[in-house]
Amino acid sequence: MNYFVSHYQILLKALQRSHASMLSTLMMFLVIGVTLILPSISFLVVQNLKSISETIQHESQITIFLKKDISADAKNKIEKELKSRIEINNYHYVKKEEAWPKLQKSMGFNESNNGLSDNPLPDAFFVSPKSVNPNQIVILKSSLDRLEGVDQVVVDTGWVKKLNSLLHLANKAIFLASILLASMLTMVIGNTIRLQMTSHYEEIELSKLIGATNQFIRRPFLYSGFIYGLGGGLTAALSLKLIVIFLNQTVVEVEALYGTQFIIIDLTPLQYLSIVGSSILIAVAASFISINQSIKKLMAT
Question: How would you classify the pairing of strands 62-66 and 88-94?
Fold first, then answer.
């Protein structure tokens, strides 16, 4: 019980110190919040781009060309197979008699100048898969290739691979930027805690003379780091939430222009908690390192 009471008293002491220097405390909250919100916004943008890419439908993404001598039963079996596939979002069947005039029109040909007496096009199914993951599309293609009556399956995955590679690169860039920003944040918080210890030098020295342990001296400053991390993390999370709300209100104008429904996807509660948790972890770690260095210098003198 005494252990918890001691920690509670030290936490109150840290809160009193933060309240006494309210301006500098609020500045620390702002610095930590702004530093954390930069990678958070980048991550939010990438997540939304990823979500948009997964909802893009390209009817010609997978084209199933049927054999010319395919029977009606085999054609029906292929259609039933496409209906039962959970990987497929939608599909539609195009007869060769429908496709040939459209192709002639798009190419500027007619029956007199096309040089072809017969329709060279086969019947085809145009399939839109649910996922844009290249590996999943390749697996789907190989299974469709094995269906009876299928002559050829053509997959247009070039744009998918490019988009996924860009998103993967963006995630790596965000990760590296987060490390750099966390390092900078560690230095800022560490210097702030070091200044606090310098201003309480006499108090620390007196505590050492009466037998206080390093752990006892360290606690109030660790709690100060915890308060900085918690305040900064909450500042970042709240700011990000307000940004998402503002963008979703603004995006109504985009919906009116393009006639389509669009919404900025927010982070999950767990992701918001991870922002706050990361802020606390960085702040406490920075405080711990700074305190240990300061105590070593104090003992050396």
Answer: unpaired
